[in-house]
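[Discussion] Sanity-checking designs against the backbone

I'm trying to build intuition for which residues belong where. Below is a C-alpha cell string of 98 positions. I'd appreciate it if someone posts a full sequence so I can compare it with mine line by line.
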C-alpha cells in the first residue's frame, strides 16, 4: 500500500489533460504517473465540476478567504471572551473598594 500523496494543482490539471487526449488508456497513464486509475477519474470529475475552483487545497482557508459570516462569528467569539474577562476583573477590583 502506498502512502497518501499530495499533488500540485498543475500536476492534476496536466494528468487530466493527458487523460482527455485519449492517447493512452487510463490504467497505463496512471501507472506512468504513479497514481491510481480511480484518482485520475476523480480529478477529471472535480475539474469538470469545479472549473477554475477545482483543486483549491484542503484544510482551513486563509483569513482573506473566510466568508464574511465565519469571520464575524470568530470576531464575536473573541469579543465575548474579552468582555467576560473584563467583567471578572471589574468585579474583583470592586470587591477591594468595599
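Best answer:
Here's mine. Compare freely.
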Amino acid at each position: 500500500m502506498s502512502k497518501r500523496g499530495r499533488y500540485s494543482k498543475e500536476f492534476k490539471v496536466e494528468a487530466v489533460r493527458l487523460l482527455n487526449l485519449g492517447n493512452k488508456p487510463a490504467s497505463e497513464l496512471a501507472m506512468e504517473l504513479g497514481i491510481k486509475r480511480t484518482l485520475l477519474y476523480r480529478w477529471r470529475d472535480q475539474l469538470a465540476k469545479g472549473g477554475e475552483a477545482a483543486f483549491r487545497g484542503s484544510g482551513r482557508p486563509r483569513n482573506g478567504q473566510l466568508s464574511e459570516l465565519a469571520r464575524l462569528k470568530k470576531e464575536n467569539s473573541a469579543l465575548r471572551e474579552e468582555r467576560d474577562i473584563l467583567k471578572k476583573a471589574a468585579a474583583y477590583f470592586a470587591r477591594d473598594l468595599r
